[in-house]
Design brief:
single chain; alpha+beta
């Protein structure tokens, strides 16, 4: 196994006036570790389309995980989907991206816009083989992967964006390709790529999407471990044990909290230098310790990071707030959301009376709650998370 991993991000715009999205994305792993993403676009919009796309993603992701042939997958879909009473067809388009050992991608496409592949930031014309299965034209591709390869799958709402509004014929695939190339940054995550494309679609639709619109991005990238230490251990005798565990790991290091920072400085035998500049009036300044990549205050800073994380896994509307700012919360957000792939939390259980809210039950610990919620958000982002308590 190589030192690469997959970064995934997907979002949808719901057709204006509808409550449910007719597109669906499912991400699964087979028992032997194959990654499988299925994007389905159900016929029409609303409840019926949602049912069609949900059935399609569920069936295809399950069958692909069992290594069942494309022919059998398509036959099963054709036999299973309910038939539309008005149009007399059982119809859901789909795109499947299956990646094995982070070395080879298999792409199977039926009637969705063709997947865009970026290699070294430029559109890559990957090979396609055409098959006719159950009277459906299916395209299959197999591609040997390289680090930083990007795959962008989409429903046809993306290529219809702006039709008879900003554009005469919509935002064609070649236009989307050009936009993705122009926006490309090697450090962008899959979620950010998805957000940039979907925001442009929303703009072209005038914030009133004429069709369900979904973008799903998969990016192959190098693993980057990170360790975050927060809070002193419940038993002072465990300080060295906690610090040994954190600093013996590879990758970048973040230390959060005044007491924790002092303990880390003492463990490393290095002085701590406190900065005096407030880059954000609500976030305390950072400090510096040789051997630590970032030293910040604790609960206030991490509460802001949690706000950013919740937004990032939802609509990612606050991206511009933290992507360039120099305050501690913004720096942590960049390191956790866009840089790290494997994150180890080392959390001390010592209780700080200042972190107990008198309006909540006495056992409620704000620090622990922040860590649990943040870890959950990071898992949704596709990060590998390990939390150790001391």
């Amino acid at each position: 196994m190589n030192d690469l991993c997959l970064d995934v991000g997907y979002r949808s715009l719901i057709k204006y006036g509808e409550q449910l999205c007719g597109d669906m994305v499912a991400v699964t792993k087979s028992e032997d570790g194959d990654f499988i993403l299925v994007l389905a676009d159900g016929l029409g919009s609303g409840v019926k389309a949602n049912i069609l796309s949900t059935l399609t993603t569920t069936i295809l992701s399950t069958m692909m995980a069992e290594h069942i042939s494309v022919e059998d997958c398509v036959t099963t879909i054709a036999a299973t989907l309910p038939v539309c009473s008005k149009r007399a067809v059982a119809y859901s388009t789909f795109t499947i991206i299956k990646i094995t050992d982070n070395e080879e991608a298999e792409i199977i496409q039926y009637d969705n816009p063709m997947v865009i592949m970026l290699r070294d930031g430029k559109s890559y014309d990957y090979p396609k083989t055409e098959k006719i299965i159950e009277n459906k034209k299916i395209y299959e591709s197999r591609i040997k992967l390289q680090c930083d390869d990007v795959f962008i799958a989409m429903s046809d709402g993306a290529i219809y964006a702006g039709v008879e509004q900003v554009l005469n014929y919509g935002w064609q695939r070649e236009n989307i390709e050009a936009f993705a190339e122009a926006c490309y940054d090697r450090n962008q995550t899959a979620t950010i790529i998805t957000s940039l494309l979907l925001e442009q679609c929303d703009l072209l639709y005038g914030q009133k999407p004429g069709d369900d619109t979904t973008v799903a991005t998969v990016k192959l990238r190098k693993r980057k471990p990170l360790s975050l230490i927060m809070g002193p251990p419940a038993d002072p005798k465990d300080v060295n044990k906690m610090m040994n565990a954190a600093f013996s790991n590879k990758g970048r290091k973040i230390v959060c909290g005044g007491t924790t920072s002092s303990l880390a400085a003492e463990y490393l035998g290095k002085p701590m230098q406190t900065e005096l500049t407030y880059f954000d009036p609500e976030i305390p300044p950072t400090s510096k310790i040789e051997g630590v990549d970032l030293v910040t205050e604790g609960v206030i800073t991490m509460s802001r990071v949690l706000e950013y994380a919740k937004d990032y896994v939802d609509k990612n509307e606050r991206y511009d707030e933290w992507r360039k700012k120099k305050d501690g919360a913004s720096q942590i957000a960049r390191m956790l959301f866009t840089e790290a792939t494997d994150i180890n939390f080392y959390i001390g259980r010592a209780i700080n009376p200042a972190h107990q809210n008198p309006n909540l039950p006495i056992t409620f610990n704000i620090k622990m709650n922040i860590v649990e919620q943040l870890a959950q958000c990071l898992k949704i982002m596709g990060k590998n998370i390990n939390v150790s308590y001391f």
